[in-house]
Amino acid sequence: ATMMAESRRRGAMEALGAVGEAAVCVDRCGRVVQLTRAAEALMGNGVCLRNARLRFDDVEAEHAVNHLIKLALEPDARFSATTRSVAARRTYRRPLAVEVIPEREALKDPLGLSGAIVLLRDLDQPRLCSTERLKRAFSFSEREAQVAAMVGAGLAADEIAKRLDLMESSVLQLIKAAMAKAEVGTRADLAGLLARLQGMKDQ
């Protein structure tokens, strides 16, 4: 059962990493055991890893996150999306949005052998356009949609490569394919088109 829970955890983190989510996996003892590339990129920006624990510049937020992690590890814990989120303040920057999800909820683990997943969102970064929406609109593949969404959010090819654990040359090829399907001539045109698409969604 423990091996199955571990396998599910790895699968969930790989899936979150594949779509560029900044996710941190915490075990039953509250120790960080895995981070996605996007989460690693956030370390040092209001949050860091020290002694296998998440530490925040905002001490109040750190206490709140630790409390939510403790709740998430309890077998019968139930809390809604609004009560499992924390805003961690940062100096001269918008806060980090932090959400704690019990792994048993995400991984359908009735035995409660899992830990928790902590999602980090940098509110200074533009939101990504939905990959499903991009796939429908332009017939993008899953990878093309992921890369295009990040181009629309203003990320450079090297940063996209880090987040998705791809070679930069692969990212450039995916951008080229997305440009062809979207019928735009430059990367800036692609970014502008996707930004407008995101704006239409938000209206």
Quick recap:
With 203 residues, the protein is α+β, with helices and mostly antiparallel strands. Helix content is 49%, strand content 20%.
Structural classification = alpha+beta
- Total DSSP E strands: 7
Q: Beta-strand level of the residues, as a percent range?
A: 15-25%
Topology pattern, helix = H, strand = E:
HEEHEEHEEHEHHHHH
Rg, nearest Å: 18 Å
Mean pLDDT: 81
Discrete helix count:
9
| Largest sheet: number of strands, sense, barrel closure | 5 strands, antiparallel
Biggest sheet, spatial arrangement of strands: 2-1-7-6-5
Query: Rough shape?
Result: globular
Task: Name its key features.
203 residues; alpha+beta; five-stranded antiparallel beta sheet; two-stranded antiparallel sheet; globular
Description:
With 203 residues, this protein is α+β, with helices and mostly antiparallel strands. Helices cover 49% and strands 20% of the residues. The chain is built from 9 helices and 7 strands; from the N terminus they run H-E-E-H-E-E-H-E-E-H-E-H-H-H-H-H. Strands 2-1-7-6-5 form a 5-stranded antiparallel β-sheet, with helices on both faces. A two-stranded antiparallel sheet has the order 3-4. The radius of gyration is 18 Å and the shape is globular. Mean pLDDT is 81; it is low at 106-113.
